[in-house]
Amino acid sequence: MILARADQATRRYGDVLALDRVDLDVRAGELVGLLGPNGAGKSTLMNLLVGLRRPTSGRVELFGGDPRDPASRRQIGVTPQETGLPGTLRVGEVVDFVSAHYPDPVPRGELLERFGLTAHARRQTGGLSGGQRRRLAVALAFVGRPRLVLLDEPTTGLDVEARHTLWDAIRAFHDDGGTVLLTSHYLEEVEALARRVVVIGQGRVLADDTVDAVRAVVGVRRVSLVADDLPTLPGVVRTERIDGRSHLLTTDADQLVRDLVTAGVPFADLEVRPTSLEEAFLAITAEHASAPTGSATDDTSAAPRPPATASVAGGRPTTPA
Ligand SMILES: Nc1ncnc2c1ncn2[C@@H]1O[C@H](COP(=O)(O)OP(=O)(O)OP(=O)(O)O)[C@@H](O)[C@H]1O
Q1: Is 249 helix (H, G, I), strand (E, B) or coil?
Q2: Within this chain, do residues 226 and 197 fall inside the same structural domain, yes or no?
Q3: Hey, which end of the chain has fewer CB within 10 Å, N or C?
Q4: Cα torsion at 126, 131, 133, 135 (round to 10°)?
Q5: Which atom of ligand 1 approaches the CA of 46 most closely?
Q6: Which residues, listed in sequence order, are joined to residue 110 by a DSSP beta bridge?
Q7: In a domain, 235, yes or no
Q8: Do 114 and 172 share a domain, yes or no?
Q9: What are the pLDDT digits (tens) for 98-116?
Q10: Is residue 238 located within the same domain as residue 120?
């Protein structure tokens, strides 16, 4: 059963194309990670699915109906990227206030326990640390025993221990049959929780696959070296020359170095380092990289699928530079 669906959903903010014909189905019982760099369109997609914004074109559905229908919304729990809590209310009071909106809320003690907040029940939210406030904001999404929870960067600002507490709570909800859609900048976070990851870049779905398959794409490395002349090398997804150094982006740095040696290329000052998610996305969206982020893709053009989508299925991008 599909709980949330985007069907060719496009959203513009003035000239900015935030989402570009996105298709997404979230089925009952799934835990889906939405991964992408800043400005990719993750929050916009979430906002469409929960009915806070409407698509410019295309459709979105929640439980098979309009996301703005209160009956549908009552069955979801949401933690937006930024939340405000009334600073003078105690943690327990905030939980009680939100609980009062639901027919069968999770008991206060149980909820606070699950999210590691028991010791803070009597503290005013204004006096909590940023991480404690964030945990409370996420906990509130679960109060009403939702069927579907949507969490926008739930662990931002949390230390390692708090992040693990939160991950455990999300896993427990999922183990009990709950459905989760969460956004993150970090593959490690998605990996810790989800089997399925949907990669968004420049408003498009670049990949919708298992974490392992996606890791092969975003696990791009930068091999940089000084060399006069480089032959065409297999597995290189992008090449740059800056200040006399060549930078090669590849998903298999070991193989690339072997190929350089086998080809007898005279090189010096070799460096291999991981790329940031942003760099990896630039590499896999090379076809679109000439367009300014989130703005210049022609809504009506019959643009080809980004290379990553096709190559993920094969486990490795094969797009030449
Ligand atoms: N209310 C708005 N008005 C104008 N532009 C907006 C608005 N909301 C989002 N955008 C733009 O739409 C694009 C997608 O933004 P969105 O917040 O959905 O990305 P995101 O993937 O959630 O980013 P982040 O990881 O930084 O939160 C960006 O270019 C952003 O500047």
Answers
A1: strand
A2: no
A3: N
A4: -160
A5: 18
A6: none
A7: yes
A8: yes
A9: 999 999 999 999 999 999 9
A10: no
- Residue 320 resides in a domain: no
Contacts of 106 (CB under 8 A, 6+ apart): 99, 114, 142, 143, 144, 145
**Predicted TM-score of the model (pTM):** 0.77
Beta-bridge partners for 248: 223, 239
Q: Are residues 109 and 237 in the same domain?
A: no
What's the CA-to-centroid distance between 260 and ligand 1, angstroms? 41
Answer whether residue 35 is part of any domain: yes
Shared-domain flag, residues 141 and 27: yes
Q: Which domain holds residue 268?
A: 218-288
Phi, psi (deg, nearest 5) at residue 301: -70, 150
Residue nearest to atom 4 of ligand 1 (CA): 13
Alpha-carbon distance of 159 to 263, in angstroms, equals 46
Task: Kindly report, residue by residue over 14-57, the tens digit of the pLDDT.
Answer: 999 999 999 999 999 999 999 888 899 999 999 999 999 999 99
Q: Does residue 207 sit within a domain?
A: yes
- Say whether pLDDT at 288 is over 70: no
Residue 140 Cβ inside 6 Å of ligand 1? The answer reads: no
Distance from C-alpha of 32 to C-alpha of 162, rounded to nearest angstrom:
21
